[in-house]
Amino acid sequence: MEQKLLDIATEYGSPIYVYNADTIIKQYQRLTNAFKDVPSLKLNYAVKALSNISVLKLFKTLESGLDTVSLQEVLLGLKAGFDPSAIIYTPNGVSLEEIEEVAALGVQINIDNLAILEQFGSKHPHIPVCIRINPHVMAGGNTNISVGHIDSKFGISIHQIPHLLRIVDNTGMRINGIHMHTGSDILDIDVFLYASEILFETAAHFKDLEFTDFGSGFKVPYKDGDIETDIEELGQKLSLRFNSFCKDYGKDLTLAFEPGKFLVSEAGVFLTKVNSVKQTTSTVFAQVDSGFNHLIRPMLYGSQHEILNVSNPTGKERFYSVVGYICETDTFANNRRIAEIREGDVLCFKNAGAYCFSMASNYNSRYRPAEVLIYNGESHLIRKRESFEDLVQNQIEIPL
């Protein structure tokens, strides 16, 4: 694989994102197998994790649905060939006008705001709506990705259920789904199961449900021996409880999830070239041709991405701080053991499939990188590297 990545970096240049379709397919099948005892399962891939249209088309071949958070993600899904009924739209803090525009496309609407719910239900009582609740459960690997706690901006509080029920009764709207998402990088499946009980209690208030959506947030390993969510154990326990709930509810519902990171994180790598190796009084810096404009997660979340020297994989390991070229603190890794790094070497950042390219920017007026998908063993360019023309095409010069 090292040679394959080096060939890609040589052919298309660096920095560059590379995704392996086989890994995506394997993860998708692993999740479906974990919940094989559920009569009706729907996986809605979280587009925000990686939104390249070729990746979306790959998920369509797997019969996945899509979880979207913006009108633009909905439009990407439609362009990729998804039927509107296969898309759920779960925004936060958007205007009523955007929600109405998405609803007009035939997409499943998911609302997490009492005020917006009342406005939408009053105007469009005939359009079925899913409701996102906040179970007030703290879960997730970082405060920025823990979204189900009491201070979160997401979801309708479980303590507001009486108010919620009054709105539904007063508007005559139909609630066809209940949804929650507690956070990302969840390890303790008991916390997930506890939150699920809250979702079941809430669901019992509504008699016309078609599905319950349990979000996602499953943790993936970031290095050899790293801990991860035990999907198989969760599948066994939650399937049993879900089937029991459906029996009590009086009909079979669809069990839905919205996995993003679980499906694409391990499928992606990010390749950079070493511009220089800089020795200071206390540190050896490996300075690469990228920065947090292309991969912000280490600086934003403190996330750790394993870094391999694919140009010298068997070299003697030394300690390096890998840093970028952005004009402020821009650190990918501190004091990390990596095979000896030389100028011109290609470094590979693992777990770069989720929330990496999708959070890239043009900070410092740098171009966003290219993307490649390895499909059926062949490398396919699925996004060109930006050019100076891309950088200025929407800017308007005024006469001065």
From TrEMBL:
Residues 23-265 form the Orn/DAP/Arg decarboxylase 2 N-terminal domain. It comes from the Bacteria. Pyridoxal 5'-phosphate binds at G217, Y355. Its cofactor is pyridoxal 5'-phosphate. Substrate binds at R297, Y301, E328, Y355. It catalyses: meso-2,6-diaminopimelate + H(+) = L-lysine + CO2. Its EC number is 4.1.1.20. Keywords: Amino-acid biosynthesis, Decarboxylase, Lyase, Lysine biosynthesis, Pyridoxal phosphate. The keyword Repressor does not apply. GO terms for molecular function: diaminopimelate decarboxylase activity. CDD domains: PLPDE_III_DapDC. InterPro entries: Ala_racemase/Decarboxylase_C, DAP_deCOOHase_LysA, De-COase2_N, Orn/DAP/Arg_de-COase, PLP-binding_barrel. The keyword Amino-acid biosynthesis applies. Homodimer. PANTHER family: DIAMINOPIMELATE DECARBOXYLASE, GROUP IV DECARBOXYLASE. Belongs to the Orn/Lys/Arg decarboxylase class-II family. LysA subfamily. Specifically catalyzes the decarboxylation of meso-diaminopimelate (meso-DAP) to L-lysine. This is Diaminopimelate decarboxylase. The lineage of its organism: Bacteria, Pseudomonadati, Bacteroidota, Flavobacteriia, Flavobacteriales. The gene is lysA.
